[in-house]
Amino acid sequence: MRQFYSFDLLALIFSLGCLPLMWLSALPSDKQWYITAGMLVIIVLIVPLKYRNYLIVIAVFTLSYLWSTAYSKQYLANIVPYIDKTVLVKAKVMSVNTHEQFIPSSPYYIKFAIYEIDNHSLDSQIPISVYWDKSDNPMAGQIWQLKLKTKAVHSYLNQGGFDSQRYAIANRSLLTAKVVKANLLSDKCNFKQAVVNHTLQYINLFFYRDILLALAFGDRSQLKEDNRQIMLQTGVAHLMAISGMHILLVFMISSSLAKIILFIVPQRFIYYGIPIGLGWLCAFFYAWLTGLNPPALRAILALSVWIYLRFRNYQISSWQKINRIIAILLLFDPLMILSESFWLSCYAVVSLLFLFEWLPLPKYMRQRKRWYPVRLLHLQFGLILLLLPLQLLVFHGISLVSLFTNLLAIPMISALTFPAILFALLFSLINCFDMALGCWFVAEQSLEWLFYCLNQFNFGWLNISNDGYLLSAIGWLVIVVLRTECWRRFFGTLLVILIILITPFYKQQDYLWRLDILDVGHGLAVVMHNGKSAILYDTGAKWEKSSAAQRVIIPFLQWHNLEVQGIIISHQHNDHIGGLAKLQQLYPKAWLLSSSTNLNNTYHCIAGNSITWNNLTLQVLWPDKLVDYAQNHDSCVIQVSDGNFKILLTGDLERHQEYQLISKYQQKLASTFLQIPHHGSATSSSYAFLNSVAPDFSFASTSRYNPWKLPSHKVIARYHELHLPYHVTAKSGQISLFFNKQFWTLKTMRTEINPRWYHDWFGSLPIYE
Questions:
Q1: Which of 20, 395, 519, 715 has the greatest number of CB atoms lying within 10 Å of its CB?
Q2: CA dihedral defined by 149, 152, 158, 160, rounded to 10 degrees?
Q3: Each residue of 535-554: pLDDT tens digit?
Q4: Which H helix or E strand runs over 456?
Q5: Going along 461-584, which residue ranges are E strands?
Q6: pLDDT in tens, 294-333
Q7: In 355-452, at which residue ranges do the beta strands (DSSP E only) sit?
Q8: What is the four-CA torsion angle of 568, 570, 571, 573, rounded to 10 degrees?
Q9: What is the pLDDT of residue 675?
Q10: What would the pLDDT profile of 549-589 be if each residue is shown by its tens digit?
Q11: Nearest CA-CA partner of 516 in 299, 298, 311, 733
Q12: Sheet order of strands, 526-529 included
């Protein structure tokens, strides 16, 4: 009975009460919230005392649920009044500036904390990311008066892609803005920026400047894309993000130095807590210097709990410690449960505890130094197996060489690179130029050697589709089976479990084929597939450092394990052809169809031509001739038919070409679905065209806050007037159509495929101001 009331049980129940935030499709309304709270009060008052054990569990769980949902609603309510406004604010720079001051740089985002809006002081500061394209370089601690044009962060929402909307909620980065006017009120920098400025004169001398900034100050904003990809694909990216390992290393190095110093201190000044206390202070200072990001904050909290328990002589297990730490974190910030870094940190710690308790090495291997390589191999291989479920959920793939690269990188970073950076920071602060430069040089050389090795191993990344997710639990199952030896008596049960894990590979899809309109912002990307192979209609835009193909299309294809057999390009504007080169590099055997003679076409997009693919017929309706450079009026118009349903894909077709199609095809234009021409521009979607096509449903691919304000109000009014239902990717996210012999089903990412309360909140915002 006494155990039932344990603090650890209540901590676990409280954490479970926050879990619904991950899956709720909508937050409870005020009425629902008060009804739930009222029911809890009534239950507490009427339930007999003999059931108080169960009552406490129910009460803690319900209070946790009420607290987490109320906290989330209040956070959103605080942000909503400032979305899509032009405001005059006073704000303090929060993020350190690591850009080179005398070298022009491209625009970047700076984190501010607003404390006054339109001459009214705020009760609490509002964080905001400001897109900075001015010549000045704001420094942390400075006070600025800014005229801002605010908006809510918007991002793509597709299967297989990174959920930036969830990330924005979890990291308090919902509000962003563009600077209209900026005036510096106070140029006084804080101590953190002074430290950065003092060390940049050294860091800027080296090639791996981006990695040094990431390890020294937790600033990953300047990571080169090549380095980021190498680290991800070789499985060592976690070493370059400030986490518990780095905080622990700072603590160990600092406390060890304190012990050495105590050898020369008179005995009367020696206290056994000095090394631990000094180590904690140094670890906290480093965590503060790197921005107190959530992983560092969790590590500091865990370290503090460990020190407190040690001084109080409390003997509790590691499981109890992690359980209490998680509950404390969620008590102060329930939204942390949406953070992937939170789950990665907690899951990694739990995996470590599970590994060393359920599959420990023999005692002689744990104690003798000569067995250190075996211990490191046991640790790394065990973590790879146990971290598989979360690895696949977050990254949708696994590095086949991560075992070897981590065996190489972990000792290198922890024993050489990171200590060198810590001593370089110390010597930089005390103006010991030669020693500081030497330490930075050692760190640079170690990174140069490490990345040389990583480049040699950069060949083993394996993308895993969603079918393989259940099988990722095999690591946990193997360890449990080996430890309990249950295979001796429960072989049949284990065989059934294994069959369940592999069933997704043999599942029968409930559709003959499907069509997905991906959310790629301002652009177009349509995927037609039967679950195995696919044809693409347009490839989205290409940007300075990335493309829609890399961020959206390829992750979607890999998530569904699709092989691209063909690519259709409507015309050659960037928002339609931007990802072609990347996709052809990844799928070199895919045929190409376009209306341009400048492209290496397999088939020509000329009216009258057709392609048969599986059970689909792709009929070309426009243009009448090929051109050197295909523009809007040369868009390749395709009518896709399976014999029962038709889909009209129009690219950026204009009104004049719509009239020509009507004249040429008349009733043959009638289609079940229509891709709204030219993203809903007023120069298309004429009344005559819409009446000829008469679609059951239409869809437009646009971005939120697009400068052209598409889809046009006039066009939207036209669809409403003709009673033609439609969806826009800027609000709905990915739009998916599932086809069977006699019926079709429509699902959107925001409402049916992956409904979440934060997705619903983003979808409720206007498309443009």
A1: 519
A2: 100
A3: 999 999 999 888 999 999 99
A4: helix 433-456
A5: 461-463, 513-517, 526-529, 533-537, 563-568
A6: 778 878 888 888 888 878 777 788 888 889 889 988 998 9
A7: 397-399
A8: -90
A9: 97
A10: 999 999 999 999 999 999 999 999 999 999 999 999 999 99
A11: 733
A12: 603-604, 591-594, 563-568, 533-537, 526-529, 513-517, 735-739, 744-748
CB 110 within 8 A of CB 95: yes
Q: Are 145 and 112 in contact (CB under 8 A)?
A: no
Q: What is the mean pLDDT of the chain?
A: 89
Strands (E), 591-643: 591-594, 603-604, 610-613, 616-622, 637-641
**pLDDT for residue 563:** 95
Q: How far apart are CA 589 and CA 584, in angstroms?
A: 8
**Mean of pLDDT values over 33-47:** 91
Q: What is the pLDDT of residues 685-734, one digit of tens each?
A: 999 999 999 999 999 999 988 888 999 999 999 999 999 999 999 999 99
Q: How buried is 734 (Cβ within 10 angstroms: 0-12 exposed, 13-18 middle, 19+ buried)?
A: buried
Tens digits of residue pLDDT in 206-222: 999 999 999 999 888 88
Residue type, 74: Q
Helices and strands (DSSP H and E) totals, the chain: 29, 22
Beta bridge mates, 109: 131
**DSSP state letter for 91:** E
- Could you write out the DSSP letters of every residue in 104-168? ----EEEEEEEEEETTEEEEEEEEEEEEE-SSS---TT-EEEEEEEEEE------TTS--HHHHH
- Cα–Cα nearest to 116, from 88, 74, 76: 88
| pLDDT of the residue at 107 | 85
Helices 340-358 & 388-395, crossing angle to 10 degrees? 160
Report the candidate in 555, 563, 491, 485 with the shortest Cα–Cα distance to residue 160: 555
> What distances in angstroms separate CA 259 from CA 202, 272, 278, 402, one per listed residue?
30, 9, 10, 36
- What DSSP element (H or E) covers 649? strand 646-649
- Is the preceding peptide bond at 373 cis, omega within 30 degrees of 0? no
Distance CA 38, CA 31 (A): 10
Q: Could you give the CA distance from residue 37 to residue 56 in angstroms, rounded to a whole number?
A: 15
- Cα 125 to Cα 570: distance, rounded to the nearest angstrom: 48
Identify the band that residue 104 occupies on the pLDDT scale cut at 50, 70 and 90.
low
Residues 6+ apart with CB under 8 A from 589: 565
Q: What is the pLDDT of residue 769?
A: 56
Determine the 3-state secondary structure of 294 from DSSP: helix
* 637 DSSP β-pair partners: 622
User: 10 Å Cβ neighbour count for 664?
Assistant: 13
Run of H or E residues at 406: helix 402-412
**Is the predicted pLDDT of residue 102 greater than 60, yes or no?**
no
CA atoms within 13 Å, Cβ hemisphere of 255: 20
139 Cβ neighbours under 8 A, 6+ residues apart:
93, 96, 97, 187, 189, 193, 197
Confidence of residue 597 (pLDDT cuts 50, 70, 90): very high
SS (H, E, C) 691-707: HHHCCCEEEECCCCCCC
CA distance 355 to 385: 10
Q: Are 311 and 277 in contact (CB under 8 A)?
A: no
